[in-house]
Amino acid sequence: MTSAPADASGGRTLIRRLAEWASDLELDDAPDRVVAHLGSQLLSQLAAARTGYAHPLGRRIARAYGGPLQPDPARAAVSLAMAAICLDHDDTAYAGHLSHSCVTVPVVYARQLRLDGRQLLTAILAADETAARVTAAATLGPFRGQAAAHTHLAGTVAGRLRALDAPARTWVNGLGLAFSVPPWTLTPGFLSTDAKGFAAAAPIQTGLTACDGARAGLRGPADVLEHPEGFLRRYADVPLPEEAVAGLGTLWHTETLSYKVHPGSAYIGAAVDCAAGLRAAGADPDDIAEVVVEGSLLTSGLDRASRARHIGPDADVAALNFSLPYNVATALLTGTLEPADLMPPAVERPERWKLAAKVRTVHDPHLSRAALLSTAPLGQALRRAGEHADTWVRAADARAADMLPPSWLAPETDFRFATKRLGARVTVRLHDGRELSAHRAQAAGAAGGGEHTALAGEKFLRSGGHPEVPHMVADLAGLDANGVAELISLALSGAADEARAEISRGERRRPGRSRRTLSVDTRALEGAYGRLLGSADSVPDRELAELALEAAALAASGVLSEAEVETAAVDALLASAPRDVLVDLVRRNAAHLLGVLDRMPAGDEGHWARGVEELRDHVERAQSAGEQRGTSGEKSAERAHDG
């Protein structure tokens, strides 16, 4: 285990640095693209809670802890978080399943504290950024995903204290108290029983208690994260303290969010998408000899862990969520996977289990490579770990060490093009020798996959939610406290016949800072990069190398010229970087450059404008050439197939 380096910030500990920044965070500090994620995140979490309450387990949760609209916000938070986690239908970020605390706690306290829309969004943003950063610092350890229950210590403290507009010193004590008693998730209960819900409930209760204590003057250790006997030393094999504070105000973890279309683990999402697509082929289940799912080490590892436990019609929903065979078989038979498939009578249908018995999983090294190169779930942490990454990966699985990207890749400095490429290939082999196959580079809704607003809205409506709620969320920044209270009530009560009250725009609780007007308009360049990355598979390697180096040169000097991107440098990069790394370098360097431009002081536009225009032209030429090349390749393949 590697110790965290000593604090080099003049005595300002990690918690203090986080607290000073997040306690003063305003909604206008975040770019519009980040704020847009907050609305999608809110809708996605509300949908996950609604589907959870509709399940028999959700009804038991409500009997035990009450409903989400009860007067006691602490019990409401526990109930709402457990309902949302129980079907594994929640959104995920690069580091952590944030929303069980980062959305839930601000939502339940919004009515009690009379928050307006901007205040609610700001509390969610502050909670996201705080919780994701602390989680990222311990990512290379025994707990990730929903098992990383400590995520919700940070999310709860940050979400509630930002809603209260508490000063930084209260944050320091609240986080110090909470992280002095972090939860430790045990696999048997988490993977196969209803105890999974306590991965959210228990830390939320601890976090709320810590807030009460901190507000009353109780003190916690400000250095609890990086102390030699503190949290990171105990919870991380390779502590990454820099992940907790890197890029405050510029590196937005909120925009690494992925949104689940289907309930279940993110490690099997792409396989379910493939299976749902293959349903259209219309193969009779009795004609299927076997179903082969190729996936990354993360997918095959989850399948091994799941198969080690009893999974059948009487299994708890947690076990069903992690069962790749059951979920793939269901999608093959029905063309989808819905929350209703995780409860009777659907789960009792024998044809599903008969087909599930024919499903096997195979590791695909190429898919593992893509997963390790992506931002989430591990790529950013591995880049931050540097020379320690190989040792950690090798200890987890020796095969993965051979698939690691080059050690010289630096951590990302901007997440606007973040990715989560947990892909899969599903092949259905029939008794007559025919094969049906489908491949997805990543699950629907995963980071980097496109528009999230419509996806989250559709997910909420599929949960039976009131059709007015997505429109209210779209206008959330303009809602007053009454409008926010009505939104929450409509979203969680399901009372479709309730009339919407007239919404008036209220004043903010405290004046905000106005958003800076950028001196260089980067929208055209960002759009060009987005289109290029969408067709990067067809762009020649040399074009990719040139674009990666040009973005780096412009970010470093503000000037783009042929002298700074010499042929020798391009040749050297081509010799050292395979194609997947070239694509990733374009993605990373583009995001870094756009981040630099976003932070550029006003008045420097003359220094940058020509270089930005030249680079955009090159990006558009490369994207157009890639599309033409891809179309030509498709036509050649069609001619070969016809011949």
**CA gyration radius, whole angstroms:** 24 Å
**Mean pLDDT reading:** 88
Largest sheet: 4 strands, mixed
Beta-strand fraction estimate: under 5%
| Dominant shape | globular
What's the total helix number?
29
Q: List low-pLDDT spans.
A: 1-9, 494-518, 634-643
Spatial sequence of strands, sheet with the most strands: 2-1-3-4
The end-to-end span amounts to 59 Å
User: SS-based structural class?
Assistant: mainly alpha
Quaternary structure of the protein: single chain
Give the total of beta strands.
Answer: 4
Percentage of residues assigned to helices: 40-55%
List keywords for this structure.
643 residues; mainly alpha; four-stranded mixed beta sheet; 53% helix; 4% strand; globular; disordered N terminus; disordered C terminus
Protein described:
The protein has a four-stranded mixed sheet. The protein is globular. The protein has helices spanning 14-22, 32-54, 56-65, 73-85, 99-102, 104-113, 117-137, 151-163, 168-178, 187-192, 198-215, 231-235, 269-278, 297-307, 317-321, 324-334, 350-356, 365-373, 379-385, 388-396, 398-401, 453-462, 469-474, 481-493, 523-534, 541-557, 567-576, 579-598, 605-642; strands at 288-295, 359-363, 424-430, 435-440. With 643 residues, it is mainly α.
